[in-house]
Amino acid sequence: MNILQKLASKLDDNETKYVNEYLTHGNKLKAYELAFPNDIDASKSVYMYHKRVSVSNYIKEVQRMASEKAILDKAWVLSRLKENSDKGTNGMKTENGIKYDLSSSNRASELIGKDLGMFTNEININGIDELVKGLAEKADLLASTMDEDESE
Predict the structure, then answer these.
(1) Is 9 left (phi over 0), alpha (psi -120 to 50) or beta?
(2) What is the pLDDT of residues 100-134, one digit of tens each?
(3) From 32, 100, 114, 142, which residue has the greatest number of CB atoms within 10 Å?
(4) Nearest-CA neighbor of 108 among 96, 120, 116?
């Protein structure tokens, strides 16, 4: 029994439905809605469901296996992106009659950066309470200073 089979054996029927839909569509909410069409609170339920250890482990393993198979394709894409990025940094110069511009260079660099995990859409809210408290204290201090100035 390979690792994928072991992980699959830990999934119940509902988890298997969700995982199959997620791996097909790549969208958590769509997968959840297709797997559980009667759940009226899908937008709230999906995130907790996706975080289940058995579900996330299975998905990660499938993605790891797929990325191993795609490693040559990925290397080719990254090399082409780097080549385009390098060409684009020459501005509007021509090379063999072809014009390159910085927008293509920026886009290629952005895609390389995304692949390297440099840009994410996640917001880190760790420490937000301390930040808000600190800002509130500064605002109170500023307000008290302004009150003192007005009373003089």
Answers:
(1) alpha
(2) 666 777 777 777 777 766 666 655 556 666 666 66
(3) 32
(4) 116
CATH class of 1-69: mainly alpha
What contacts 123, CB < 8 A, 6 or more positions away? Answer: none
Q: Which of 112, 50, 45, 46 is CA-nearest to residue 81?
A: 112
Ramachandran category for residue 91: left, alpha or beta (phi over 0 → left; psi -120 to 50 → alpha) = left
The residue ranges of every structural domain in the chain are: 1-69
Q: Within a 10 A sphere around the Cβ of 51, how many other Cβ atoms?
A: 9
pTM: predicted TM-score of the whole model, two decimal places: 0.46
Q: 112 with 81: CB under 8 angstroms?
A: yes
What does the alpha-carbon distance between residue 124 and residue 111 come to, in Å, rounded to a whole number? Answer: 22
Q: Can you give the length of the chain in residues?
A: 152
The whole-angstrom separation of Cα 26 and Cα 20 is 10
Give, to the nearest 10 degrees, the angle between helix 28-35 and helix 13-25. Answer: 140
CA nearest 62: which of 22, 17, 114? 22
**In whole angstroms, what is the distance from residue 145 CA to residue 55 CA?**
55
